[in-house]
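Curious: explain these tokens?
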Amino acid sequence: MQLPFTEEQFLDIFGTYNAALWPFIVVLWLATARVATELVRGRARGTIVSLLAAAHWAWSGVVYHALFFSRINPAAWLFAVMFVTQAFAFVWFGVVRRRLTFEWRGGLRHGLAGLLLAYSLAYPGLVLATGQSFPRAPAAGVPCPTTLFTAGLLLAAGPPVPRVLLMIPIAWSLIGGSAAVLLGIAPDLMLLVAAVLLAVYATFPQSLAGKVRT
């Protein structure tokens, strides 16, 4: 796969993005950590979780893709549309229709959800641990950790999860996971795992319902 930009250009965009917006990125990470904690405790409201997910996707679509990534990749405009569409989908199904519910239970599905949520929060540290240097590195409030966080949320959501909510996260997991090899962002390889889990959950929702013995 030939990318329309170099690895240096890619990292430079993160450097500009992080330097300009780091206070907002920190606030978004803290809000995400708080909601994830409440979710694992079984105290998260579906509307709040859905609004946070919508904020992540809208931010990544408008701010990262449209305002920054489009400088080096024309496809970023298509990605921006995808991400804003996902944001609207979360508002529609999670806030307007209230079809997303979250009740944390011991089981395989919630164990995998917890893993992805924790991984998405640890993502900035994992990026630094694999040889990247801040600010020229992806941290928070960008597409890949947003997608990993969303994968955890959707696995934690009570079935049936509207399949339309799964389509774009699966698509970006494949795009981001494939690009990870070319761009040297090793933590993004987890996106390929997320894609498989979401695809399985979309097709066979009961297959991840196994109980964890205590």
Observations:
- The helical segments are 7-40, 46-68, 76-96, 108-129, 143-156, 164-183, 190-203.
- Residues 7-208 form one domain.
- The mean pLDDT is 93.
